[in-house]
Specification:
alpha+beta, 236 residues, 12-stranded mixed β-sheet, 12 strands
Length: 236
């Protein structure tokens, strides 16, 4: 169950915590629909730091902590849960290879824009609905509130922030989503995930922010990580 919550959280986080230029974005993640014994794990605080192509996202909650860093050349992801420290790294070439495999007309999300407006963390946002079809042929819809004042990055940075492959793809969404809401069924459970920015800062960020201390963590390769994720999802 805890792995399921983490995967679902990063599915949203992967598409939420990306941008160009220099930003520090504080946000809150809430997952509704969890069993009562896991309800407390459905709330997490997120801080994302972006400087050009470099990104760093820190997620903390009762489950533990997760950090994902993309330094422009490679992605490093580390996680600590119940005292268990694990992580993996992926090169830009590996991320590019995944991007090539994923970008096909058949699985490209459909995006519909509306005239509805909402102000989030000081930025005026426009409503967009993203519809995607998963490998299981099931349709997933996500509602995003997007600002054109923060630009989306190139695909390599997007893939880096997905932590190696998210469960939700925002496709060619125009602008940066300061809020995302999505419903999904996992293991027979109907869950609603909501990610909303609470504060956005444009203050300077030191380059040292994008270094990762992996001492004490059991690190694996990107290929090993992918194999573990496929096994956890029951895929061969």
């Amino acid at each position: 169950m805890k792995k399921l919550i983490t995967a679902s959280a990063f599915a949203l986080l992967a598409n939420f915590a990306i941008a160009q230029e220099t930003y520090t974005i504080k946000s809150a993640l809430k997952i509704d629909g969890l069993p009562p014994e896991y309800a407390a794990f459905g709330e997490q605080d997120i801080t994302t730091m972006i400087k050009g192509e470099k990104t760093k996202t820190e997620m903390t909650g009762m489950m533990g902590s997760n950090v994902i860093v993309f330094d422009g050349a490679k992605m490093t992801s580390i996680s600590e849960q119940m005292g268990n420290k694990t992580g993996f790294t992926a090169t830009k070439a590996e991320l590019d290879a995944d991007k090539k495999d994923e970008k096909t007309p058949a699985n490209k999300p459909k995006i519909e824009y509306f005239t509805d407006k909402k102000t989030i963390a000081g930025y005026e946002c426009t409503k967009a609905v993203i519809t995607s079809i998963g490998k299981d042929k099931k349709e997933t819809k996500a509602t995003a509130w997007v600002t054109d004042k923060i630009k989306m990055p190139d695909d390599k940075a997007k893939k880096g922030m997905r932590g190696g492959g998210g469960m939700m793809d925002l496709g060619d969404l125009k602008g940066y989503p300061l809020s995302i809401e999505s419903s999904m069924n996992q293991g027979g459970m109907e869950m609603k995930m909501m990610l909303t920015a609470t504060e956005v800062s444009t203050a300077a960020i030191d380059d040292k922010t994008f270094t990762v201390d992996t001492e004490g963590y059991k690190m694996s390769s990107y290929k090993e990580y992918q194999e573990k994720m496929k096994a956890a999802a029951g895929q061969k």
